[in-house]
Every structure is written in C-alpha cells, then in structure tokens.
Amino acid sequence: MSFSFSFYAMEDSQSVATLIGSTASKIQQLQKAFAELESQRALTLNLRWKELEEHFSGLEKSLKRRFHELEDQEKEFETKTRKAREMLQKREAAVVAKEQSSLMRLQEKRDAAVFSITNALEKHRKLSSGQPADNGDNGELSVEEKQPEDIKSSFENGNLEVKSYPQLVKLCEEMDSEGLQKFISDNRKNLAALKEEIPWALKAAASPARLVLESLEGFYPSEVDGKKDANLLGLRRTCIMLMECLSVLLSNLDMVSVLALISEDIKEQAKIIAEEWKPKLDALDMDASNGNSLEAHAFLQLIDTFGIASGFNEEELSRLIPMVSRRRQAADLCRSLGLSEKMPGVIEVLVKNGRQIDAVNLAFAFELTEQFSPVPLLKSYLKEARKASSPVKPGNASPTAQVCFLLVCLLLAKYISVCY
C-alpha cells in the first residue's frame, strides 16, 4: 500500500511540475491574445497588461515555492517512515531473541526439575518395594552430577586444567586404565570435580581413545552378577563417564586431530567391543530397566563416542532408547546418533508401556508436543498410578500414590505454563 501511495504521489508531483513549467507559455499566449485585442480597439491597454503580467508572474513564483516546499516535506516524511520501519524491525528481532532465550532457560530448568523429581520417585519406589536405592553409595558412581555439556562449556572457556587431581595426568601418561578406574572409584565423593579435569588429563595420554577402550574390559565380567554387585555398577558408571569425557575432548579438537585420535584401528577395536556387547542387550527387559539401563547407555555411548553408528541398524538402536529414556543424556545421544526421526515411534512405545513421563520428556526435547500432548499423557499416568497403588488405610492413599500425585501435579503445572 505504501508503494502505491508513493507511486501516485510521484505521478501527481510530475503533473504539477509540468503544469508549472507550462505557465510561461500560457502567459505568452495570453499576451498575444491581449495584443490582438488591443489592435482591435482604439484605447491602449499597455498599463493593464503589465499589471496582469506581474500578477501572473507572482502566482507562478508562489506556486513553484509551494511546490518545492511540498517536495521537501514528502522527502522528510519518507525518511522518517523508513527510519521508523527499521527501528520497528530491530525491536521485533530483539523481542524474538529475548523470547527464545527465555524459552531455552525455562526448558533447562524444566528438564532439571523433572529429572530430580523422577529420580526421587524411583528411589521411593525401590525403597517401598525393598530394593536397594540407586543413590551412588556402596561403590556406585553417579554420573548425573555434572553433564558433558557443562564440562564442554568449561573446556571451551579455558577453565579446565588439572589442579585438584594431578594424579590423573600421571595415570593417563602411563596409559594405566586399571589405575584410572581405581582412582575414580576411590574419589567417587568428588566425582563432579573429577569429571571437569578428566578431559584435560586425557590429552596427556599417548592414545586417549585406546586408554578409554582398555577401561571397558571389565564392563561384562564372567563371574559377577552385575545386577547385585554394587562395585560393578560403579565401574560401569565410570566407563560411561570416561567415554563422555573423551567425547568432550574430541569436540574441542580440529578434524585432523580427531581423525588422528580416532583412527581406523581404534574404530575397529570399538566395533569389536560393540559386537561383543550387542547380544547381551537382547536379554535386557525394558520394563525391568525402567529407562535407566547402564548397559544400553554404555552401548549407545560407545557407538557415539567412537563414531561407528553407521555400522549398526537404526531400528535396532532406536529399540534401545526406551531403556535409557530416564537418563539425562538420552536426548543428546539420540540426536548425535541420528535417531531424531525415530522419536515418534519411541514415544509411542513408552506410552504403550505406561512410561508417560519419559514420553513427555522426549516429546518436549524433540518438539513433538503437538503430536503427543503432555497434559493428557500426564493425566493418564496419574490415573494408572492411582489404580496400581493399594491404600494403607481406608480413604488414605499409599505413599507411592502420594508421590506420584505430587510428581504429576508439578509436571502438569510446568508443562501448562510452557504451553500457555
């Protein structure tokens, strides 16, 4: 519409300019007519013609002056309009960027809150059923204390160096995988600080990738039942953490250095280990793992860290996702392994198996909330939890049901606030 206005304004200005330009010729024509009239009459009209000529000349000058004033005003208006439009566009861009930043911060807080609540619920469920709580004691190492993204951020900012644990550098220089495992186990109470320094320490190893691969040797011992042995669970957590730390190191190197560290020989060794682990995963029960399987997580992390995903079927890999859906690294692993397109199918499997909370988390992580609406899923979870729980006294819900109710209420409040 502004274009049409400018076009017509320009056309009118040209017309006015043309008319003003023809004023002189019109005056000449009038002078000739006046002279002819004078020749037809006896009395002279010289005095009157001069008056008419001065009058018309004054009108012409006045019109020209006014016309130029209008042209200047039009240019000034166009300049102001253009500046206002540019300012509006900048403000709109700033608002969009601010909204995006706020949504990202809200998503991070939501993920952290959901993870804490689901962990609390899982521990409560295990305590209620008499199972040992998975809380990092008795030799277990919790790898959830600090995420690889946090370590990577510190690495990129140059904040990482081996200050607190110089022994890490020595163990890496000596390529002592067993010593590295034992050192981490002995210092499990300070695991967060260790995780910050391990990527830096790995740089001191002659072959960081080979050192990490060697540390995986005890992941599947032949004589110990991993489900009951707490020390083995701790070792498995350490294996996963070392692979994550190696990924952090690799992500901060240039392509030439990465190819040098992850050579074809290293990839081949990683493939051999993955092929050995793969049949053991077939015996895992998705319901029993409850989305927190260390075995499935380690297998997927191994494939991702050493870049060997192309050697495995995407369908087979996607079937492992429900076994790690409760772990905070699940979404990032899926993206890194190129399984984003498989997420709708994974979420459907979770919903069918009564894992609505994990389904909602993945739906938000992969922007699938339109296809899998969070509120109905969480309401369905709460309904099933109420049915499954047996009341301790008439009219009183069991502690598990109360925790479930609190969990879903919190999640509903968060997701509704995000959506609306």
What's this entry about, in short?
Belongs to the Frigida family. The protein has 420 residues and is mainly alpha-helical. It contains 19 helices and no strands.
The number of helical elements comes to: 19
The general outline is elongated
| Strand/helix succession | HHHHHHHHHHHHHHHHHHH
Give average pLDDT, whole number: 77
Query: What amount of the residues lies in strands?
Result: under 5%
Rg on CA atoms, Å: 39 Å
Biggest sheet statistics: none
Helix content: over 70%
Structural class: mainly alpha
Q: How far apart are the first and last residues' alpha carbons, in Å?
A: 35 Å
Low-confidence stretches: 1-5, 132-160, 392-398
Count of individual beta strands: 0
Report on the structure:
By secondary structure, the protein is mainly alpha-helical. Among the domains are: 20-100; 164-256, no CATH class. It has 19 helices and no strands. The protein has helices spanning 2-21, 23-39, 46-128, 148-156, 167-173, 177-186, 191-202, 208-215, 230-251, 255-261, 264-281, 286-289, 294-305, 314-318, 330-336, 343-352, 356-365, 374-388, 399-419. Helix 6 (177-186) packs across helix 8 (208-215). It is elongated, with a radius of gyration of 39 Å. The two termini are 35 Å apart. It comes from Gossypium gossypioides.
